[in-house]
Specification:
The complex is a heterodimer of chains A (58) and B (136).
Chain A: H1 5-24, H2 28-57
Chain B: H1 2-14, H2 21-28, H3 32-36, H4 40-59, H5 71-81, H6 85-93, H7 103-131
Classes of the chains: A mainly alpha (58), B mainly alpha (136).
């Protein structure tokens, strides 16, 4: 199975966010919001760091 | 006063029996700790996430750690053991024994380790629900 960098990041973020959302909050609504928050932070930080490394490498 | 006594009574009732059962079952089988407590939806989501992450890690030719050669191997093994019976089945079936030679295989190893760590978090959550430390 050959995943692209981005696909691997998205899958990792998805699975980790589901577990974080369920375990760190009490109600379904809060779980959903916290899971979405974690997912956005995972993927967003990966994109930002990727661009930072791209410019450092040039 | 009466409310306090009711709360204490409810707490005692909640702590009856073997309170570590959801923790142990949840560690051995991802999501099973929540199933045991009747949290079917949460258990199913946790199981799908953890088993999915483990399976994708193996599909990416990730490695299952199995020795104590250096500190990184030991830490990897500790993470892998968090997957409980998935790790045992994987070792028995001979999965994850390939040498890591491509980048995706290295990511696969990380997926497996993180699946184990997430499973530990899920098992502790089941324990907290069982003891009443987490309300719902």
């Amino acid at each position: 199975m050959h995943l692209s960098h981005f696909a691997a990041v998205v899958l990792f973020a998805l699975f980790a966010s589901v577990v974080f959302g369920i375990t760190m909050r009490d109600t379904p609504q809060k779980m959903l919001r916290y899971g979405a928050y974690c997912f956005v932070l995972f993927v967003g930080s990966a994109i930002v760091l990727s661009w930072v490394m791209y410019f450092i490498a040039r | 006063m009466a409310t306090g006594q009711q709360k204490t009574g409810a707490g005692q009732a909640q702590n009856q029996g073997f309170v570590y059962l959801p923790l142990i079952v949840g560690w051995l089988v991802p999501g099973a700790g929540h199933f045991l407590l009747g949290k079917w939806g949460r258990g199913a989501l946790l199981a799908a996430s953890i088993v999915g992450m483990f399976a994708i890690g193996l599909a990416m030719q990730g490695q299952l750690y199995g020795n104590f050669k250096d500190i990184l191997e030991m830490l990897g093994l500790a993470g892998d053991l968090g997957t409980g019976l998935l790790y045992v089945v994987g070792r028995l079936m001979g999965w994850g024994t390939n040498l890591v030679q491509v980048t995706t295989a290295d990511w696969g190893s990380r997926f497996i380790v993180v699946a184990g760590l997430l499973n530990v978090i899920a098992a502790v959550d089941a324990h907290n629900l069982r003891t009443g430390r987490k309300e719902s």
